[in-house]
């Protein structure tokens, strides 16, 4: 049976702007160099996303992609998703409504079925 990919959930700062980009970008760079295969970025608490923040997300996608890693965004607030759509970033970086949607996309349906069959329940 194929192993599940290694996931990591990243929560960016509430204000994802040019002033916070360096720390966030360094964190993503470190993850890209690690054994993590899928980087899930939780945008739920991001309330401010400016052009610098959009650049950070695109840069994070680019370095992840170069290393064969997958970067996915999930749970953006309404105004954040509007900015992502306006810039076309949602056409480049996979963006989902929930964490569950991300995981469903990463783990193919047939693999989920296989895993469910091998699930061992305790005997009572």
Structure description:
The chain has helices at residues 21-33, 51-66, 78-87, 99-106, 109-117; strands at residues 7-10, 15-16, 38-42, 48-49, 70-74, 94-96. The protein is of the alpha/beta class and 124 residues long. Strands 1-3-5-6 form a four-stranded parallel sheet, sandwiched between helices. The chain has a two-stranded parallel sheet with strand order 2-4. Helix 1 runs parallel beside helix 2 (51-66). It starts with 6 loop residues before the first strand and ends in a 7-residue tail after the last helix. 26% of the residues are buried.
Which stretches are low in confidence, meaning pLDDT under 50 for 5 or more residues running? 119-124
Which class of secondary structure composition applies to the elements? alpha/beta
Beginning-to-end CA distance, first to last residue: 27 Å
Tally of alpha and pi helices: 5
Overall pLDDT score: 85
Helix content: 40-55%
> Largest sheet, order of strands side by side?
1-3-5-6
Total DSSP E strands: 6
Supply Rg. Answer: 16 Å
What is the approximate shape? globular
Approximate strand percentage: 15-25%
What does the main sheet amount to? Answer: 4 strands, parallel
- H-E order: EEHEEHEHEHH
SSE inventory with pairings:
Layout: E1 7-10, E2 15-16, H1 21-33, E3 38-42, E4 48-49, H2 51-66, E5 70-74, H3 78-87, E6 94-96, H4 99-106, H5 109-117
Parallel strand pairs: 1-3, 2-4, 3-5, 5-6
Helix pairs in contact: 1-2
């Amino acid at each position: 049976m194929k192993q599940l990919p290694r996931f990591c959930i990243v929560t960016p700062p509430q204000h994802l702007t040019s002033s916070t980009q360096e720390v966030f970008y360094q964190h993503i760079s470190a993850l890209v160099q690690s054994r993590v295969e899928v980087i899930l970025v939780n945008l739920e608490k991001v309330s401010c996303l400016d052009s610098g923040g959009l650049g950070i997300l695109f840069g994070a996608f680019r370095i992840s992609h170069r290393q064969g890693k997958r970067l996915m965004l999930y749970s953006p607030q309404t105004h954040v998703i509007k900015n992502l759509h306006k810039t076309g970033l949602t056409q480049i970086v996979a963006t989902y409504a929930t964490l569950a949607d991300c995981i469903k996309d990463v783990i193919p349906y047939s693999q989920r079925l296989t895993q469910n069959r091998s699930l061992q329940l305790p005997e009572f």
